[in-house]
Amino acid sequence: MSLQLDSQGRLRHLLTTEGLPRELLTRILDTAESFSGVIGKSVKKVPLLRGRTIMNLFFEPSTRTRTTFELAAQRLSADVLNIDVATSSASKGESLLDMLHNLEAMQCDAFVVRHADSGAAELIARHVRPGVAIINAGDGRHAHPTQALLDAFTIRSEKGPLEPLTIAIVGDILHSRVARSEVHAFLGLGAGEVRLIAPRTLLPRCFDGLPVKVFEDMDAGLEGADVVIMLRLQRERMSGALLPSESEFFKRYGLTEKRLERTSPQAIVMHPGPVNRGVELDPRVADGPRSVILRQVTNGIAVRMAVMSMVIGGHSDEAAIRNEEVSS
Amino acid sequence: MSRLRITGGTIVDPAANLEQPSDLYVADGIVLAHGDAPDGFSADQVIDATGKLVAPGLVDIAARLREPGSTSKGGIISESQAAAAGGITTLLQPPDTQPITDTPSVVELIHSRCNEAAATRILPVGALTKGLKGEQLSEMAALRDAGCPALADGGRPLHNTLVLQRALDYAATFAIPVMLTPEDPYLAAGGATHEGAIANRLGLAGQSTATETAALGRLIAIAEERGVAIHVGRLSSARGAEMVAAAQQRGLPITADTAIHQLYLTEHDCAGYNSLAHTCPPARTTGDREVLRQLVSTGVIGCLCSDHQPHDPDAKAGTFDACEPGISSLDTFLALTLRLVDEGLLTLKQAFERITSGPAKALGLNVGSLQMGSPADICIIDPKLAWQIKPETMHSRGKNTPFANWELTGAATTTIVDGRVVYRRPSD
């Protein structure tokens, strides 16, 4: 934890949601809330990071995530560079760190890192010079903290504080960086109950003492849930003999209108996107009144602005942002 | 005719059930006598071993030198010098060299390099199948005749069970010992660490214990069915070690080893993506480690090996998934074994048995003993010498150790191979 927090407990890097104190998680969400106001205005920019440079360093393709990080940086008035790197040419230690030091020499203030290997963001964070921040935009199957935070933000916006809520996460838990980060973020924010729902082939065998409830039966797991988060299913899971077929998965674990009846009447449906319609979600649910999927995308920008401003700008409270907003 | 007298030390030789103060006499590379000097013996050289242990040189049955093939990581000269400094006088190099040790010409190449420069005795292990591909049997008898004391899968377990059975049958025809890796290649695929709480927390793909036990089940079933002897290497799990114990109890000729680091590391050492603790097989749970220790103590696991795998810094500098597995361990093998004595797990004699006569017996090697007529491979050890593991001062070209800064006690002060001093600790 000391790697991502400084001696005063402030956020230096954002690598994982694991172990982040509740007040810090709350402060990130509160800051994001302030930025939501900015995004809704006709001039959607604040000058918080004017003159700062952020580099999106993506070792695996992800247009959606990269775009939201880019937009968030631009809304903070930072200069943004996008670097797409073939993982094969930079997965070896020497080339990965060589590349980092070369890019660092260009005087960047922060790197947003996406990598197929777990721990890549942490590795880079250990090697950057002081004052350069790393934001993990997804590493292997380990963590995707901004996705988890934007989900927490969305839940708080839609349902209020997380304490009384039962949140169900459904699908490929085993390979999901999102699910791992969500579990830590939701529990860190005091969520009432976190449930994981999946067939045994898509569940980790050990949870390291985390107080989550595991269900292999979708119907039982959905009973009374206030929030249902459906995870994206990678198609290669079929060929890897983890699942028999997409249709079988949808039949057992797909979210349909009928299944949704088992949840609490006001339950919301979420998905980190992009949705495989007819595999994870019935299109009528994906586009239905309970779905907040598009609001998640919008909230993603505010949350990423909050994280960037905290790790680079040192602005960690909403009052400072309001002042900036006024002066701009 | 060179004659050597080692005086004042305590001889520890498990093969001769010996642990007593005694002088040792060597002539022409052979142990001549203990105790009183043979009639007419006059030494060309006398080594004072007062306060020290005089033991057979260590026999390490799995140490990769990286030559031929990867000399940026190690080499016959550097690694044999590291072995000598660690008290090792015989080491077996697995066949996964580049090129693979699957023909007599590669064996000859290794021998010629060893004759030029090696500080210790290096025995290349031959490949069980051509190219270690698990498809075609290698020319086993020719490999034996060229100087391979054993055959192995080189850490690339055979996928095809029928080929495995035939390889064991064919090796048995010529009574060549076979060393096998108990790993199911399908269950192991992609798993860089033990499948457990730490792997889940770090988001790393894990290898289940069944990776080892399923493979062991297959190996033991074939060995039993065909009546052949096998040696299984680098055990990592409690259940796997218990399966070996059960097979031995049924009278099967099965021997086993584990790497010394398996008796110290657990999955927790991988926390923080510590690539130095990335090994294959992975370090497992504390419970696994404790059972391995117990079965080393009882002798079910009769051999310890270094499983030395030196790497250049780049090999360990990437992400955990991308980094190469293995520990540089020739420098630390002896002292980590002696630590088991300090911890009360093994007696001194048992400890030396696991690293001298145990491995020699398992593979039918004529080394690992100080009995009269044996090759004069000797390790003189200061059992009280305290030192700290510092990667920068390790003799191996590979500095990749998760044991950096550990305080250890006991070190080789003089190493002798065939009656020739190949290492002397500078301060000695």
Automatic annotation (TrEMBL), chain A:
Its EC number is 2.1.3.2. Carbamoyl phosphate binds at R64, T65, R114, H144, Q147, G273, P274. Keywords: Pyrimidine biosynthesis, Transferase. SUPFAM superfamilies: Aspartate/ornithine carbamoyltransferase. Transmembrane segments: none annotated. GO terms for molecular function: amino acid binding; aspartate carbamoyltransferase activity. Pathway: Pyrimidine metabolism; UMP biosynthesis via de novo pathway; (S)-dihydroorotate from bicarbonate: step 2/3. Residues 165-310 form the Aspartate/ornithine carbamoyltransferase Asp/Orn-binding domain. One of its GO terms (biological process) is amino acid metabolic process. This is Aspartate carbamoyltransferase. It comes from Halorhodospira halochloris (Ectothiorhodospira halochloris).
Automatic annotation (TrEMBL), chain B:
Signal peptide: none annotated. InterPro entries: Amidohydro_3, DHOase, DHOase/Allantoinase_Hydrolase, DHOase_cat, Metal-dep_hydrolase_composite, Metal_Hydrolase. One of its GO terms (biological process) is purine nucleobase catabolic process. It comes from the Bacteria. Residues 293-423 form the Amidohydrolase domain. GO terms for molecular function: allantoinase activity; dihydroorotase activity; metal ion binding. Keywords: Pyrimidine biosynthesis, Zinc. Residues 51-237 form the Dihydroorotase catalytic domain. SUPFAM superfamilies: Composite domain of metallo-dependent hydrolases (SSF51338), Metallo-dependent hydrolases (SSF51556). One of its GO terms (cellular component) is cytoplasm. This is Dihydroorotase. It comes from Halorhodospira halochloris.
